[in-house]
User: What shape does this take?
Amino acid sequence: MNYWLLMGILVVVIGFVLRLNPLLVVASAALATGMAAGMTPLSILAAFGKSFNESRFVTIIYILLPVIGVLERYGLQQRARALISGVKGASTGRLLIGYLLFRQVSAALGLVSIAGHAQTVRPLVAPMAEAAAELQLPDLDPPTRDRVKALAAATDNVGLFFAEDIFVAIGSILLIIGFLKQNGIELTPFELSVWAIPSAFAAFAIHGARLLLFDRWLARRRGA
Amino acid sequence: MIGLPALYLLAGAVFAIFAVLSLGDPGNAKRIGNATFWGLLAVSFVAGDRIGDVGNGVLALGLVALAGLGLMGRSNPATTTADERSESANRLGNRLFLPALIVPVTALIGTFFLKDSGWIDPKQVTLVSLGIGVLIALATCYLWLKPPVLAPWQEGGRLMDSVGWAAVLPQMLASLGALFALTGVGQVVGGLAGAAIPSGNLFAAVSAYAIGMALFTMIMGNAFAAFPIMTAAIALPILVGQFGGDPAIICAIGMLAGFSGTLMTPMAANFNIVPAALLELQDRNAVIKAQIGTALPLLAVNLLLIYFLGFR
Assistant: This one.
């Protein structure tokens, strides 16, 4: 075993702990790993560039920003806030539990791209959650406001991760099937995806409970 | 047939516009850095398939250098005030949500109805539909709101600058993952994990698999990269081979144990770091901190689910 290959992982961990620029950390880790494996600098550069080019699809989502930007110019976030401010009894926790349910159900049906951080969280869910928090705690301080927004993003991730595998044609299910097939185990997508259901319920229960606890925390701070 | 190449041309055009507008923004002292960064990304989208692997590597290094040397700033083009936005929100009412819904609805309709139309590459139907949705939504905004011609691009550019270099971090991490795979880093980690399990103890073996999936996912930023390695090192030889577990249950839930790790790592940049930038949070790791309280109990649940369901 060539344990020098673990250098790259070490570089990543140290880089993130020292809070260096992550792009710099990632490039250095790639260089360290390639050198440990005895690759030439040019072949490291080529392997890095090839994969960078092949994964461009993850960066596509930003073509949405001009649409979100121009709608925000005409008050989209304010409208999202106003909609929630008018709902009696609205709370951050209950709003985000509703979003969690929506995200889990739609992802389980394979509709993973209809929501996301650029599509829904920034323009709609985060401002709504902020407006609900303002109802609960009228003078919302900046750290708590950031906490509310972070919870909105977290809710999107939890809802997506712990429901998408229920859909039979999602990437991770296909990956498992392909991998097991190479190892002589034949399974259908459905035999796998049904076992994603217990974790989906657990994710809803755990994250939902935390969101309700956040509501209580806001209420306690208002009382204090 | 419309596929990824057409979509990449559209993305290249969008980034090129961001680059040109950055250059013409006197309010940003680092405007040349921003213009170069978004310009390089435009080149990547338009010509990435023609400049060769080394060319792409040099392009990626250029992006790293601009970000690492702190050469990027934020644009601040003239925009509407908060009061103007509230007034316009009141005037336009809930109809403002409609253009925002065009994109997801188009993606939805496209996914269901255009898959077998022959017009769109069926493998990329969701992404292409998303691109078509963006064009329809933009046209709707121009016709209905009649903004200044450059306004959507200036506003989009402002949001893009707030994301900044984090926008390409997911792609860079994918490249690092490719180098890890090429050099066999995973096999070394898998070998260490496999050797660490006391023999004959089922609970220890299940824990090593579930926690190993989460930890290795945190390092790689991606459960897909961790899964084949941990499963080959622990799940197949020990959990299935020695203890006779059900591979479907172990693998399906093992992947989800990895997803718990995704919630806890800055390496999963598009889920954890990019939203912190998009929401303009002070702390780059705020989303991760908000997720740990869900991720740790969920990892424990997944571990126990494998233990209790997988070996009957």
Summary: Residues 100 and 155 of chain A are 6 Å apart (CA to CA). Residues 197-223 of chain A form the longest helix (27 residues). DSSP finds eleven helices and no strands in chain A. Chain A touches chain B through 115 residues (CB under 8 Å).
